[in-house]
Amino acid sequence: MAEKKDSIWVKSIPLKEQIHVIVTLIRTAKPFRQMFFWALAFGAVFALLQAAAPRIIAYYMTDYLQQNNHVTFQVMLSFAILVVVIRLGQAVTDFLNAYYFTVAAEYALEDLRVKVFRKLHTLGMRYFDQVPAGSLVTRVNNDTASLADFWRFFMELTFVAMSMIGAYVGMLTVSVKATFLMLVFVPFIIGSVLIYQRFSSRLFRHMRERLSHLNAKIAESITGIDVIQEFYQEERFKKSFAKVNGEYFNARFRMIQADALLLEPMIDLLLGAATVLVFWYFGVLSMTTVVSAGVIYAFTTYLNNIFSPLESVMNLFSPFQEGMVSGYRILGILAEDTDAPKQNETANKIITEGKIEFKHVDFSYDGQHKILEDLTFTANPGDTVALVGHTGSGKSSTINALMRFYDFQAGQILIDGHDIRDIKRDDLRQKMGLVLQEPFMFFGDIASNIRMYDESITDQQVVTAAKFIGADKLIMDTPDDYHSQVQEGGSGFSAGEKQLISFARTIVRDPKILILDEATANVDTETESLIQQSLLKMRQNRTTIAIAHRLSTIKDADLILVLDKGQVVERGTHDELLKEHGRYYDLYRLQGTQTDTATE
Strand pairing partners for 378? Predict the structure, then answer.
């Protein structure tokens, strides 16, 4: 499978962008800076204790053991207690450093995940039209989780930095010349880190890309299993999966090879070279002066304190790269400016009657190609206006503009004589009821799906709404009536049953305006009859805008608009349009409906 050119995993994030991501992510953790401060403070204390322990042991070896001084039991006990206290202090400060850093990082991740989730709910429908839902789920859940490695890398990095500083300070107290000699290895340490980072990051991104293709292949196979079996495609998919799986295996294998070659062996090589140099230096020095065993012990211990933590940091370079990419994607959402259409700052009007007026409205999704052009019509309070036309004629776009899912570019939309932008957003949503062609049901029970988790709506109102639209009998036939469990999406309920519950969800708010997106399109004939009766009751004393695919359902509409390429090409009642023998007449005949002889 060829790599996707636009995949974020195969793109190289510029250094400037990486710095921006790091700085921004650190800023997002500002509310938890106190915990990060304590983590760093305990890390600094750990580094000091780590530097002190070898020096104390070296002093004991040099001044007591090597000098043949009489070592009393009290002296031995004192040094033993001192070393134990230092080691206990190291254990405690190491624990507190890791604890505070990890807790602070988890709080930061939780806070960032909430911010991303909230940001998504401020974005306009245009954004969700362009970005797949699966991608957004990945960003909110997986990408934020990947940032845990980002913070763990910084924890290890600060730990290593303080350990190295402490070790070099400890070396200076033993031998200044030998310490400066050890500085020779600093460029080699930095170089080895950069070499590993370069190779591991590139291999890791390649491995993640292969994993993405593997997951896509698995998802495709599971989702389309019925089609695969129907057309005897099992063998082809097995071979295709084996190929993608092999590519992922090879990518992982190259990653393992890079780790095996550049990780532990490189650190061991540098440590070995540094140890040899230490022995060489003190060996030469011993020819002219006495070199104590304690000094050599301290130096070799400090060397281990410098090189040993490097391995854990280098191990985190690849996950850090994943965290960097995840942070880049997350910040992309937070910086997204495709916001939902905003009301005017002084918006304070409310809907009282439900009169709708479109005046010369132009609408476009991309700002270039008009979907609606000079759309003009009026729906008086209590009237039903039906929108008819082929796919792409502008029916749904009219609803999108009226519901303020998208902003229109020219003209006016008035409700009760007020510009729609001057109406309170809450009142706009409260007084307009939308019934979709494919209603969605949320995890919970039937009652919560009707009240939509609005606790101000009482149980009695829920029951009244269900009875009003004829869903009460259906609900009472379920095992726990209004408290019967509903799975996500409403699995276990038929399309008609879900539609009736969505009707109750709409009617319980007693909207002034009702918007119907072909509410009977996906139901059987028997259920359609029940739904039509419910719709008739719902429409009473409410202004209704209905998208109609089945023309037989809108015969009683007060006004029918026939749209084509965003323009009204015919308007009138059902009987008036049939008499014209125009597009509506052709659509009506195309659906196999017998026209009334009086209109022939």
Answer: 357
442 and 430 in contact (C-beta within 8 Å)? no
How far apart CA 11 and CA 574 sit, in angstroms, is 57
> Would you state the structure tokens that stand for residue 431, as one six-digit string?
């007084």
Domain coordinates in residue numbering, the chain = 15-334, 356-599
Sheet holding 356-364, edge to edge: 370-379, 356-364, 410-415, 418-419
Q: Kindly state the DSSP code that residue 548 receives in the 8-state scheme.
A: -
Rounded CA-CA distance 109/98 in Å is: 16
Contacts 24+ apart (CB under 8 A), 333-340: 333/116, 333/119, 333/120, 333/136, 333/139, 334/115, 334/116, 334/119, 336/119, 336/123, 336/127, 338/123, 338/124, 338/126, 338/127, 339/122, 339/123, 339/124, 340/122, 340/123, 340/124, 340/125, 340/404, 340/405
AA letter at 24 = T
Predicted TM-score (pTM) of this structure: 0.70
Instruction: Give CATH for domain 356-599.
Output: 3.40.50.300
Domain 15-334 has CATH 1.20.1560.10: yes
Return d(Cα 216, Cα 190) in angstroms, integer: 38
Rounded Cα–Cα distance for residues 275 and 298 (Å): 12
pLDDT tens across the length of the chain (600 residues): 344 444 544 455 666 777 888 888 888 888 998 998 999 899 889 888 888 888 888 888 877 776 666 677 888 888 889 989 999 999 999 999 989 988 998 898 889 889 989 988 888 887 887 777 766 777 787 778 878 878 888 888 888 888 888 888 888 888 888 888 888 888 887 787 777 777 776 777 677 678 777 877 887 788 788 888 878 888 888 998 999 899 889 988 887 887 777 767 777 888 888 888 888 988 888 888 877 888 888 888 888 888 877 777 777 776 777 777 778 888 888 888 777 788 888 889 999 999 999 999 999 887 788 899 999 999 999 999 999 988 888 998 999 899 888 889 999 999 999 999 999 988 898 899 888 877 888 888 899 889 888 888 898 999 998 888 888 888 888 888 888 888 877 777 887 888 888 888 888 888 999 998 876 665 666 666 777 777 788 888 889 998 887 787 788 899 999 999 889 999 999 999 999 988 998 888 887 644 443 344
Token digits for 290? Answer: 């006495």
First-to-last alpha carbon distance for the chain, in angstroms, is: 60
| Exposed e or buried b per residue across 54-81, where buried means at least 16 C-beta atoms within 10 angstroms of its C-beta | bbebbbbbbebeeeeeeeeeeeeeebee
Closest Cα partner for 423 from 350, 338, 498?
A: 350
Give me the residues paired with residue 547 across strands.
387, 517
Largest CA distance in the chain: 128
The yes-or-no answer to whether 15-334 and 356-599 have a common fold is no
Cα–Cα distances in angstroms (integers) from residue 544 to residues 132, 435, 446, in the given order: 32, 11, 26
Q: What is the enclosing helix (H) or strand (E) of 183?
A: none
